[in-house]
Amino acid sequence: MRTEEKLVAAGVGAGSEVIVPSYATAGAAEAVRRVGALPVFADIDPVTFCLDPVSVAGAVTSRTAAIVPVSLFGHPADLAALRQAAVDGALLVLEHTEHTECVARIDHVDLHRRRANAAYLDACLSGVVTPATAPGYVHRYDSYVVRVPGNGRPDRDAFARALRARGVRCHVPVQTPVHRLPSFMRELKLPETLRLPETERAADECLALPMDEASSRRELQRLVSACNSLGGLLPAAA
């Protein structure tokens, strides 16, 4: 069932507010708009890139009807903590999912390979901040997303250009947070002063590297060599 269908079935509509992440695709926020409700953006946890329960709790108002988290890059959202933040279970928590057909095709063997490849990169990469997994969770690594330390977006973009010049097909996973998209700012009358610091930092620092279950060890070694050769381009992470 699609997110908007879940919201309609739960009676969420005009006059309701629904808390969603801004660091994601616009899918969750668009689903909320399609049912006539108002998307309200909360910040993310810097480790998981998913909705931060503390930020969510601060965004709850008397009009809040639901919370729609997104499990980003293969790291599960903390649904239990979000339910606690939802006024001790008084609000709906409806997870938004995308690319369900692609995810469904990943079997246990492929998932094991993907995690093994991620572990190799975790151990070998330097000069970038590799993905972390919150205690008690298992990462799927649908995307292998690192942070490029330094001066935010300028250094991240310079790093990405240098990698592409070396044949590495990297990309920025979230170019613009949803609360900064002109269409949402206009329609929702979002103030330019709205700040989601972890969301904005992730948008400036994150880079998705090419890694999946089909990556060979030789491909991973070339990726590591290309990344590590740029170690002198950027200041070391604090």
Briefly, what CATH class of the largest domain? Alpha Beta
Compute the number of helices.
10
The residue fraction in helices comes out at 25-40%
Low-confidence residue ranges: 234-238
Give a nutshell description of this structure.
The protein is an alpha/beta fold.
Can you lay out the helices and strands and say which pair or pack?
Blueprint: H1 3-9, E1 17-21, H2 27-34, E2 38-42, H3 53-59, E3 64-67, H4 79-85, E4 92-93, H5 100-104, H6 108-124, E5 144-147, H7 153-165, H8 182-188, H9 197-205, E6 206-209, H10 217-228
Parallel strand pairs: 1-2, 1-3, 3-4
Antiparallel strand pairs: 5-6
Helix pairs in contact: 3-4
Describe the model.
The chain has helices at residues 3-9, 27-34, 53-59, 79-85, 100-104, 108-124, 153-165, 182-188, 197-205, 217-228; strands spanning 17-21, 38-42, 64-67, 92-93, 144-147, 206-209. It has 2 domains: 3-93, Type I PLP-dependent aspartate aminotransferase-like (Major domain) (Aspartate Aminotransferase, domain 2, 3-Layer(aba) Sandwich), CATH 3.40.640.10; 107-228, Aspartate Aminotransferase, domain 1, CATH 3.90.1150.10. The chain is globular. Residues 234-238 have low confidence and may be disordered. The strands form 2 sheets. The protein has a 4-stranded parallel sheet with strand order 2-1-3-4, sandwiched between helices. It has a two-stranded antiparallel sheet with strand order 5-6. The termini are far apart. Strand 1, helix 2 (27-34) and strand 2 (38-42) form a beta-alpha-beta unit. The protein is an alpha/beta fold and 238 residues long. It is 39% helix and 10% strand.
